């Protein structure tokens, strides 16, 4: 396929996706759910096919071809040749930029679809009406809606115990338009976006990936040779022995460098951006719904504050005809003058330009609410969802199942767990009071995750069959003062199941039989 044809094909397909609005109404109805799920899966397959075609045509390194088009050195080059080469270079550079940009958008769209499909996978499953066997939506699709028993009758079940946030799906950059969505964020949204990205970019302690050495040795002809050598991380403790084995006993190492990799919690740039946008945009929709109720309770005069911002919005984009549009200082002075005139008329400001004390107080309260509560809603939501995801899934399932967080680390180290030390108590109280979202305010979530990962290692060879959602709830109960009823409600799990897992935890940590004690000692050692 020609390069320009492939670029146009990808752009048209992404435009088609952008024009198709995602609607979550009646998503619990199987027909609606299935329609959305299959549509997203088909799109993902098509996007993957486009990316494969782009990779085959060198879109990953589009600028390398520019090296072929240079100018000859010296006086042999005429002015006409210089101009011609410059024009050619510009054309090839534009084409390379076009390739780079469209591949970037396709990658963003792919990761966004993976996030959406992962959330839908967690949301529901199907159950055979004949043999009652359960299937994930991916299994249901692969089996072409036919059970192993031969039945084609299924019932759709919503899995209320799983971790998912379907509400972010309409806000994901499904068409790869993440730059457009970022540009639409207001000032608080931009700060919130940075916060979420910083959470997802939290890196673990550096791990050696490769070792670079500059060595000196003599070859068979007794010539002194210097050479740059790269070894894999497996030789981090015996790199000297390895270079001596290859280049002889008399080899000398003149320079040595360890190259470390620092994987993030979500170890993919496009997935981080898509998740951050999805959660921040969703948080903005929550703020739009609850802000008036919150502000009315806290402000002296809610209507006056609204009028104040209406006047600012009225003039902030106006420009009078008699002022030069390039004279920015004059335009700004005119706007301030017009706003001040209206504020004085409404008694919001005195004739010296001082805002009334009660209005000034309301402005400070509003800014505090936006900065300390609204700005942190997205961070609170995604931290809770990731925390819950780790707490309620097994190590094995995180390795093989495409969950709501593609490219997430299977396990977090101490550095990565630090982000869970933040506990936005005010935000959690606000969400619990003004929305249907259920979040538990927990101190030291990082230590709870440490307990979960440690317990996974302790129980690795155990024959106990855990209910991992109930196990996560049980670990919270065992390591906090939160009431069991509150934990069960937040995790949508029956208390009896949690109590059963509490017994399993005790059985693993405090074995009663000699055989179990020996097994636990082996694990510890």
Keywords for this entry:
525 residues; mainly alpha; 4 domains; three-stranded antiparallel beta sheet; 20 helices; 6 strands; globular
Summarize the model shown.
The chain has 525 residues and is mainly alpha-helical. Helices cover 56% and strands 8% of the residues.
Unreliable stretches (pLDDT < 50, length at least 5) are 69-75
Mean pLDDT: 88
Distance between the termini: 59 Å
Number of strands: 6
- Number of helical segments with 4 or more residues: 20
**Elements, N to C (H/E):** HHHEEHEHHEEHEHHHHHHHHHHHHH
- Could you give a short account of the major beta sheet? 3 strands, antiparallel
Count structural domains: 4
| Strands side by side in the biggest sheet | 2-1-3
Binned, the helix content reads: 55-70%
Strand fraction equals 5-15%
Rg is 30 Å
| Multimerization status | single chain
- Helix and strand content put the structural class at mainly alpha
Principal-axis shape equals: globular
Characterise this structure.
With 525 residues, the chain is mostly helical. It folds into four domains: 3-168; 185-203 and 266-385 and 396-416 and 425-435, no CATH class; 207-261; 386-395 and 417-424 and 436-524. The protein has helices at 3-18, 30-56, 79-123, 137-142, 178-183, 187-200, 239-247, 269-298, 302-315, 328-345, 357-372, 377-391, 395-400, 414-417, 425-434, 445-458, 468-478, 484-491, 495-509, 514-524; strands spanning 124-128, 134-135, 154-158, 207-218, 224-232, 252-261. It has a three-stranded antiparallel beta sheet with strand order 2-1-3. The chain has a three-stranded antiparallel beta sheet with strand order 5-4-6. Helix 2 (30-56) packs antiparallel against helix 3 (79-123), helix 6 packs parallel to helix 12 (377-391) and helix 8 crosses helix 12. The two termini are 59 Å apart.
